[in-house]
Amino acid sequence: MTTLVETRDLTKRYGDFTALDGCSCGVREGEIFGLLGPNGAGKTTLLRLLLGFIRPTSGSARVAGFDCVAESLMVRTHTAYLPGEARLFRRMNGFQTLDFFSGLRPHCRRDRAAEVARRLDLDCSRQVARMSTGMRQKLALAVVLATEAALTILDEPTANLDPTARAEVLGLVREAQAAGRTVIFSSHVLSEVETTCDRVAIVRAGRLVHEQSIADLRRSHRITARLAGAWDAIPAELEAHATLVSRHDGRVVLESGDSLAPLLGWLATLPLDEVQIEPVGLGGVYDRFHRPVS
Amino acid sequence: MFDTAIWKKTWGDQRVLVLSLVALWSAFPWIYIWLSAQIPMPAFQDVLLRAIPQDWQRLSGVPFSEVATHAGRVALAFVDPVVVLAATVFGITRGSDAVSGQLERGTMEMILAQPVNRVAVFLSQALATLAAAALLAAVLFAAAASAVALGPWAGKVDPLRFLPAACNVFGLIVCMAGISACVSAADSYRWRTIGIMCGFYVFAILAKLVGRLSTPLAWCGYLSVLNAYEPQRLVGDPATSWRLLLGYDGVLLGIGLAAYAAGAWIFAKRDLPAPL
């Protein structure tokens, strides 16, 4: 699969503060790539670097083969972007807003934007100044999701939306993928990322600390148990299948990286009580980096 | 380097301000000339030439004998605060909105997410502002010319003599808008851009006054862009007026357009902060 977005040692510093530190990653064509991290982790900085809004201190980034600094215009030709807090023109109404953005983007389908707005149950005749925050978000989503660009970047697209609209947006994201588009999906809502994305990256303090496919994640399990006897190290032949996450206060936590089957026989030989086996889930992975178990 | 959608949006943004100034400047010369005509010319000449110290001529920029004519009295309308302040406010308002205004409102992010060149965004806005400036100057000239031709002083002055003065008003708007847009291109807060421009304008007034009133400090006048705004000197002999205008508007338009070019360069190169 071709890589549509590629960053190499991408770094952005503001004086002494490093907003993004040596980020190297790739987003494959046709996938939905989740970007996770707490506020200020560097997610938006990464997205703004891709769009050429800010210049990297060092490193490089390419979208659809175009350099994000030198060929920013071509990058944006191939990209649709929803900012984290999309602000629109207060004096325009919804229809005028859709017309305006259609005028800025050649081959933009104005009728498609109106259709997306209708699906999101948005009254486009209302002036933006009189719209609620959620309505403005829907309008911005209509602008972005109607764009037939190779890459769609959504920075917290479901913020401020009601559950129905959230579901509709996630459906539209999947439709975009089905139409062959690539999506970068930045969000704080782990469940949305887990159900929508193909792959996820976790950013912490400006560094990309983890990348994993959701399919691998679904195969991972967490085994929690109370030790009723002595603990032996994980046998060498199983080390590729299991990781000891923690062992304290008489409790042990293991994680299986792929299939659970090879571990079951070994687990049966251990002095364990109160064994719980559950899917790791994105929350577990996220907590590993942002709320590490002591 | 030009984007029709941005041009149209800018016209929409400045529509209320432009229409307000069109209304103001359409009426102002009529009111001004009607009020001036209430003071008969001999009485006005008596006050101007005998009661006011002749040293004060320095402030007017032209001899009182020229002011004490019908053309001179109409020309004072072009240096009235209603014209000068409105032109300056329009220039600063539109120029400051170019970048820092939209960054502050957060709307620049959605615009620049589209495949549109930053320089094209900046220059399309600039062209809409320049077109509005030309429209306003034309309205002011039309109102002044029609008030002269049809008002109480009909037949006493050639209405076309006020065209260079109106061109000087255009130059002032372009200069203020250009400098404001340049500051705006480097700034992220519109209130700060406006503050800087207000300081610049006050400095320009003070430098011009000091340069006019003090012979040893006459050089201060050259520090002021307002030294090139002298519409009252442009209503005399047409040949002289057009030659003077070339110099004045050369300075004002030169500074304004150079500031626009610098602003476009700054905007194209700078980092854009995330909306606050």
Verbal overview:
The complex is a heterodimer of chains A (294) and B (276). Chain A folds into two domains: 3-216, 3-Layer(aba) Sandwich (Rossmann fold); 220-290. Chain A has 294 residues and is α/β, with parallel strands linked by helices. In chain A, strand 12 and strand 13 form a beta hairpin. Chain A is elongated. Chain A has helices spanning 43-50, 72-77, 94-104, 110-119, 133-145, 163-178, 190-196, 214-219, 261-269, 281-290, and strands at 3-14, 17-28, 32-36, 58-63, 66-67, 79-82, 151-155, 182-186, 199-204, 207-213, 221-227, 242-248, 251-256, 272-279. The longest helix of chain A has 16 residues, at 163-178. Chain B is mainly α and 276 residues long. Chain B has helices at 4-37, 41-51, 57-60, 64-67, 70-75, 81-105, 108-112, 118-150, 163-186, 190-213, 238-269. The longest helix of chain B has 34 residues, at 4-37. The model of chain B has no long low-confidence stretch (mean pLDDT 93). The interface between A and B is medium-sized, with 31 and 24 residues.
Question: What does the overall shape of chain B look like?
Answer: elongated
- How many whole angstroms does the radius of gyration of chain A measure? 22 Å
The assigned CATH architecture of the largest domain in chain A is 3-Layer(aba) Sandwich
Our count of helices of chain A gives 10
The 3D shape of chain A can be described as elongated
Helical content of chain B (DSSP H or I, runs of 4+):
over 70%
Features:
heterodimer; A: 294 residues; alpha/beta; Rossmann fold; 2 domains; six-stranded mixed sheet; four-stranded antiparallel sheet; 31% strand; B: 276 residues; mainly alpha; 0% strand
Summarize the structure.
By secondary structure, chain A is of the alpha/beta class. Chain A has ten helices and 14 strands.
List the helices and strands and how they pair.
The complex is a heterodimer of chains A (294) and B (276).
Chain A: E1 3-14, E2 17-28, E3 32-36, H1 43-50, E4 58-63, E5 66-67, H2 72-77, E6 79-82, H3 94-104, H4 110-119, H5 133-145, E7 151-155, H6 163-178, E8 182-186, H7 190-196, E9 199-204, E10 207-213, H8 214-219, E11 221-227, E12 242-248, E13 251-256, H9 261-269, E14 272-279, H10 281-290
Helix pairs in contact in A: 4-5, 7-10
Chain B: H1 4-37, H2 41-51, H3 57-60, H4 64-67, H5 70-75, H6 81-105, H7 108-112, H8 118-150, H9 163-186, H10 190-213, H11 238-269
